[in-house]
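Table 4 source record.
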Amino acid sequence: MRSYKEILSFLIIREQLLLAWKIMFFIVCGSLVFGSLTLMRINIQTVDFLGIVIAHGAEPSGAGREAYLIVKLDNGESVRVRVAGWFDFRPGQRALVREITTNFLGLKKYEFKDYLDQPRGG
């Protein structure tokens, strides 16, 4: 038969483990509530810019290769623009670029929208 001290130490350890689980549960719930409140306050702002296509390239990604263009905007800034799907590379042509900005960490992304000029030749 177990002694009284063994049973008492077992019960104390069990109670401490239960308390640790309760504390962890409240920490996780609090972080989920805080995270959801933070995500609700994110503003996404889009602005369209005009620029001239300078170069193109592709980078390996998880699902293949991700195409991009280098566009010199009218304000003088050169940006790397993500291209979704197939595109026709026309260097020197004017293009419409959309800048997507969030207030969460100040992230900026650029997406290619369309060429402004008529297609070459044909």
